[in-house]
Amino acid sequence: MEKVAYLSQPNCYKLSNGTVEAIVTTDVGPRVIRYGFAGGENMLAEIPGDKVVTELGQWKHWGGHRLWHAPEAMPRTYVPDNDPVDFEGVDDNSAHLIQPVEKETGLQKEMTVTLDHAGTRLTIEHRITNRNLWPVEFAPWAITIMNGSGGGTVVLPQEPYISHDDYLQPARAMVLWHYTDLSDRRWRFGSKYVRLNVDPAQTQPQKLGLTNKQGGAGYFRNNMLFVKRFPFLEHAVYPDCGCNCETYTAGSFVEIETLGKMDRIDPGESADHIERWDVFKDVELGDTDAAAETSIKPLIAGTSGVGG
């Protein structure tokens, strides 16, 4: 671990094992603003100038990976995270970031970011603690803005095929927003995967949410595949009509989002959510589900938990 300046922020910390590197911020956040192969391009977006102005102040995109609480609401969700966070180096490959309590919500966000000593695995433990004197109902919401410069493709797994003769119940929820247009050519629905292509020329927003029981989602760009794995709990209640995985794009802006279960969190108690990231080189996505299945199934396949 070393202290570095990155994205015009002087007090960042870089975790590196020689294969991949991750950079976290302490001037704002908690945020992960870089993840990629050492010396290579950032798989995450860098957009420090973009902002959303609300009655609570200027919420800035910054880029990278952040932690929100669901369900989304204006202005509660957009409490600015532009102030310094407490930083603790857990050991030589792990950083603990603690945001001050949000005075507007009484919630406090934390991330513990740990890089494996070898390989590409980055584990992010998210925690939101209720510092109010009353219970609050919410779900942790982990959002990663991917590098959409020049385009890319979100890849979400379909649920496994089961014959009508063998099983009559639905497989999962697929949730649409009022602005979702399934006739938009950026969407592609195959038997194995749902794809969302990023097109900088197409600025109309698109969003889709899923009950993702496979526990995995991917982003393909420049023959590299970013994979995040996350838990699915069979009997949990998830936000947004049952979504634990969502994706959004508008122009070159693209996000992969995962959500924990909705819970009533008592004062002093916390809600936790874990993601595990990997990135792979020299991947061919292909134009068909068969091609994608051959090349990426061993990489994108998650589990019902956070292993794999």
Which terms would index this structure?
about 5% helix, about 300 residues, single chain, globular, eight-stranded antiparallel β-sheet, Beta-galactosidase, Chain A, domain 5, mainly beta, ten-stranded antiparallel β-sheet, disordered C terminus
Walk me through what this model shows.
With 308 residues, the protein is mainly beta. The protein has a single domain, classed as Beta-galactosidase, Chain A, domain 5 (Distorted Sandwich). It is built from 2 helices and 22 strands. The strands form 3 sheets. It has a 10-stranded antiparallel β-sheet, covered by helices on one side. Strands 5, 6, 11, 13, 16, 19, 20 and 21 form an 8-stranded antiparallel β-sheet that branches. A 4-stranded antiparallel β-sheet has the order 1-2-3-4, with no helix packed on it. The longest helix is centred in the C-terminal third of the chain and has 12 residues. It is globular, with a radius of gyration of 19 Å.
Summarize the structure.
With 308 residues, this protein is mostly beta strands.
- The CATH topology turns out to be Beta-galactosidase, Chain A, domain 5
Give the strand line-up of the largest sheet: 7-8-9-10-22-18-17-12-15-14
CATH architecture: Distorted Sandwich
CATH class: Mainly Beta
The chain-level mean pLDDT equals 94
Amino- and carboxy-terminal Cα gap? 26 Å
Helical percentage: under 10%
Domain count: 1
Contiguous helical run count: 2
**Sheet with most strands:** 10 strands, antiparallel
